[in-house]
Q: What sequence folds into this?
């Protein structure tokens, strides 16, 4: 357990209470997880999302097992965990992107600003305008850069005049750090840009409808390190105005960008805590095993 | 021996050569410690033997069969007394058919001149000798080829390379055959078309507004000179195709959208095969449906609203043809809509777009090139369709844009021009080739455009 992943050891060198951590078993997969029990600090005061006893199942497969967590206002929270642990599924519950999967069933209490996300009379269009999403693979529409950003404002009727729309497009591109590169070729087709630019365009597209929350599902997994660094800077900037939930496979990324980190394991939410605590003094043996690279 | 018997015999020999070479290669390999010590697998040695056995023999067989007739005829003609030699090709073929009829026993030798009877016996003798020669030669070559390859089963010879090369050439020949057939069809149509334009000026053909291909049979006969203006036919074709597309495009497209975006899995797996079954109904069945059900219905309906409709109308043919090509549009559109990546849908939905907004603004534009390709393919099918039009739209070459009148199309005219006993040197029959050529050019252009669009579409996602 002393074989720390070297790239996160910088954050971990403050670790002084290592002796207090339970020694992981030889096979961390054997550890029994108590359903619905999350160690650390899952709840905050005045949350943006209040999620209680959430269960998600695909047919008879339970993907999310009784998870309760709060997501604070203007907070950046990372979801980490091994592949197939349910973190993306959970993320997609927050703006009901699972709706299009017919066999997917979501139960429990999911509240956004004290309104039920899954209420039968809930307008999904309005919800998704408030809770935007950026995907793993950059997915700009095969349209011009301008039309990509203007897509959301147009369908929501956010601009009355062309000049309003121009302003929204420019602001969104600026916030996404893409304005300087894109301002001279707004009419160029978006799929011709580099992967990093495309992903920032997708972020600009999400920002353009002025959401309150931005969900990011492994936004950098298809990008090179330089493009990744730019997105991470962007996340830091955006955290002033948005609540950001980011799913990531990179623990370094979670450590760099997020205020709190949640560790998922086989559909359970094992541990949530402030990011530096998670990486320096994880309380649960599974978290410990994961961040030290014993599995994942 | 007949060619028909020789062919299977050669193939049997090839199989034997395969088996023998296979066994020999294993036998050669055994003392060396297994087939891993051969340069190629036993299959390749065996296949090479089979190819050596069959291919040269078949080539000789084909060449012989191709030329034996002409050569024998030449020799037979040469045996005739010089004063009876034919003066023209027509006379020659007359004499030859007499000779072969006598030889085949259809004509009693007593009723023909003596030199013909003599030539007939020469022909008979030549033919049987030729057949014997051919059989011996072909079988000899097959056996020799097989034996040669059999002796060349040796561990250091790489049979795999030979077999691969030969197979590549065989594939090439097959591909070339398809291309050559197309070229052959085009040329045969082309030359007849040129002959037609020697009789009827090309400007009259392309720009004439009247089509009436009846020409006088004899020089002194009172009758029309024939009018070969293609415009009424193309208007009819366009009218019917346009009606068909007006029916097929909305129905096909909307059903494709329903199937790919809205229908549940079970619904889709039921509806799609049923829709595609429409394409499997023979066109002649559509034809009588159009003629016996739809056309009278349209006539009665038009009568109710006080319009006059012919009992054979462009509308009836167009409507039924439209139903027929629905699966072309729906199936191809469904495929391209499904080919639009799911991430596009997610991207749009995540921005708060509804399903129909996503369809209209993202998926449809992205799939549009492919959809257009599908529509153009359906259009060339509609233009080429004959049976429905014959039965439901009639034969009268009216130049009209009124869908309630009867019209005719290019393909229908080609069919009627060539059906029955026809002489092949009148402008009437030759005009069919000119029509065919024109139609070919039009559909070719349509296909080229469709392929271009489809290709452009492919580049977008790769």
A:
């Amino acid at each position: 357990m002393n074989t720390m992943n070297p790239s996160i050891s910088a954050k971990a060198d403050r670790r002084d209470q290592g002796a207090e951590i339970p020694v992981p078993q030889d096979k961390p997969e054997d550890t029994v997880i108590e359903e619905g029990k999350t160690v650390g600090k899952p709840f905050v005061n005045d949350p943006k999302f209040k999620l209680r006893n959430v269960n998600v199942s695909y047919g008879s497969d339970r993907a999310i097992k009784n998870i309760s967590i709060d997501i604070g206002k203007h907070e950046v929270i990372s979801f980490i965990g091994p592949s197939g642990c349910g973190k993306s599924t959970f993320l997609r519950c927050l703006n009901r992107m699972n709706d299009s999967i017919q066999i997917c069933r979501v139960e429990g209490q999911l509240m956004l600003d004290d309104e039920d996300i899954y209420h039968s009379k809930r307008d999904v269009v309005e919800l998704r305008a408030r809770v935007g999403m950026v995907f793993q693979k950059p997915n700009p529409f095969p349209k011009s850069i301008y039309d990509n950003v203007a897509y959301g404002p147009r369908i929501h009727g956010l601009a009355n005049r062309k000049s309003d729309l121009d302003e929204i497009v420019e602001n969104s591109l600026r916030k996404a750090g893409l304005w300087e590169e894109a301002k001279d070729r707004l009419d160029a087709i978006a799929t011709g840009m580099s992967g990093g630019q495309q992903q920032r365009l997708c972020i600009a597209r999400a920002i353009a409808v002025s959401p309150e929350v931005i969900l990011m599902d492994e936004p950098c997994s298809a990008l090179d390190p330089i493009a990744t660094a730019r997105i991470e800077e962007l996340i830091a900037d955006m955290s002033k105005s948005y609540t950001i939930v980011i799913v990531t496979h990179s623990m370094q990324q979670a450590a760099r960008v997020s205020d709190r980190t949640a560790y998922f394991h086989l559909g359970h939410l094992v541990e949530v805590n402030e990011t530096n605590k998670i990486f320096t003094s994880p309380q649960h043996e599974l978290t410990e095993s994961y961040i030290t690279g014993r599995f994942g | 021996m007949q060619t028909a018997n020789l062919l299977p015999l050669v193939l049997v020999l090839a199989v034997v050569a395969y088996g023998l070479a296979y066994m020999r290669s294993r036998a050669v390999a055994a003392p060396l410690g297994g087939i891993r010590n051969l340069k190629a697998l036993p299959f390749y040695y065996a296949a090479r033997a089979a190819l050596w056995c069959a291919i040269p023999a078949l080539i000789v067989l084909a060449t012989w069969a191709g030329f034996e007739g002409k050569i024998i005829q030449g020799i037979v003609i040469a045996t005739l007394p010089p004063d009876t030699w034919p003066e023209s090709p027509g006379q020659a073929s007359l004499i030859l058919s007499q000779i072969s009829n006598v030889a085949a026993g259809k004509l009693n030798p007593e009723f023909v001149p003596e030199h013909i009877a003599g030539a007939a016996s020469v022909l008979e003798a030549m033919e049987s000798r030729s057949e014997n020669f051919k059989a011996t030669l072909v079988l000899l070559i097959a056996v020799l080829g097989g034996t040669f390859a059999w002796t060349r089963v040796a561990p250091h010879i790489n049979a795999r390379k030979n077999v691969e090369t030969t197979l590549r050439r065989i594939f090439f020949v097959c591909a070339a055959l398809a291309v050559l057939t197309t070229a052959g069809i085009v040329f045969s149509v082309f030359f007849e078309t040129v002959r037609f334009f020697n009789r009827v000026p090309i400007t009259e053909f392309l720009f004439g507004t009247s089509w009436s291909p009846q020409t006088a049979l004899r020089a002194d006969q009172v009758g029309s000179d024939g009018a070969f203006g293609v415009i009424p036919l193309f208007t009819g074709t366009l009218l019917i195709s346009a009606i068909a597309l007006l029916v097929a495009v909305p129905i096909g497209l909307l059903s494709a959208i329903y199937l790919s975006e809205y229908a549940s899995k079970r619904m889709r797996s039921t509806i799609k095969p049923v829709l595609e079954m429409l394409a499997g109904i023979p066109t002649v069945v559509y034809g009588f449906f159009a003629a016996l059900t739809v056309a009278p219905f349209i006539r009665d309906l038009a009568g109710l609203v006080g319009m006059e409709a012919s009992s054979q109308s462009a509308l009836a043919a167009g409507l039924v043809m439209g139903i027929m090509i629905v699966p072309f549009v729906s199936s191809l559109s469904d495929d391209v809509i499904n080919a639009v990546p799911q991430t596009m849908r997610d991207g749009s939905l995540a921005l708060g777009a509804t399903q129909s907004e996503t369809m209209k603004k993202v998926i449809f534009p992205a799939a549009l090139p492919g959809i257009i390709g599908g529509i153009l393919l359906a259009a060339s099918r509609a233009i080429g369709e004959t049976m429905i039009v014959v039965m439901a739209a009639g034969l009268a070459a009216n130049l009209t844009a009124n869908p309630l009148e009867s019209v005719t199309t290019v393909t229908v005219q080609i069919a009627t021009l060539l059906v029955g006993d026809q002489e092949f040197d009148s402008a009437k029959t030759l005009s069919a080739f000119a029509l065919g050529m024109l139609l070919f050019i039009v559909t070719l252009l349509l296909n080229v455009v469709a392929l271009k669009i489809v290709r452009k579409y492919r580049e977008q996602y790769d």
